[in-house]
Amino acid sequence: MQKDGTKPIDFKYNLALKNRIYKRIQKNKKPAFIRSWTIAASIVILLGINFYSLIYNKSFSFFNSQDKIALILKETDLNQQVKVSLPDGSFVILNGESSIEYPENFNDTIRLVKLKGEAFFDVTKNINKPFVIQSGSIRTKVLGTSFNIREAKTTTEVVVHTGLVKVTSKEASVFITPNQKVIYNNKTNKLYKKEVNAEVTNLWWKEEVVLEKIKIEELAIELQKLYKIPFVFKTEEIKEAYFYSLRLSKNETLDELLVRVNFINEVKLIKNNNMVEIVKK
């Protein structure tokens, strides 16, 4: 007989109920180290996202505070080329229908400019103050080097002449060295790297360039831009051929170029109406 007046059946029922509650609590209860790792992983992910967002948007926020910083805008008309000197001693050559925007004075941490169109950059070296160009959807970051940027409707191209350049989109970053090019595709948001002859991209602003070795396909692209006429290959295999020791002058007429190229090379350029056909001899 129970002294406290509790019946044996009630005691057994209460004990069973407590056991079921305890088991349910233990089932839903995660070990402490699992909870700790889950919390830590969440913090790392959030910090990573915030850090990337901060770094990527740092340069873009600069141009949103024009009321605080005096900006200079240089623009060119069609077929006009202008040399622009920047506050740090760097210089830029703007191609036709292009513009560059930059502060009257660079701040203490970054040299930031905004480009539309095409320009050749020769950047004064400063390892403590990176030089950053915003062009379309990509950023090009250097410390001191020379390179060409061309922004078109569907692509943006960066070609390096000297030094090391970092090109960054919202999805990826690519490092390129002399005679390499990065192409950013606006539709796919992808960066593509390839080997090129960087000197040929100087033809639009230099009076003359000498090319030791260049693929015919690469040359045709630049000649199309220079002479404003399509260069068409009759067969795909010709694109892989090379020109060796070719001199190009910006002031040379198309007819003069065709005569000279056809005399010394294994391909033939034929002017036909409003295009130039490239055929094998």
UniProtKB/TrEMBL annotation:
**What are the record keywords, sorted?**
Membrane, Transmembrane, Transmembrane helix
Per its UniProt record, what InterPro entries does this chain match? FecR, Ferrdict_sens_TM
Q: What is a single molecular function from GO for this protein? A: sigma factor antagonist activity
Transmembrane segments annotated in the record for this chain: 32-55
**Segments forming domain FecR protein:** 75-166
Would the keyword Isomerase turn up in this protein's UniProt record?
no
Q: What is the designated name of this protein?
A: FecR protein domain-containing protein
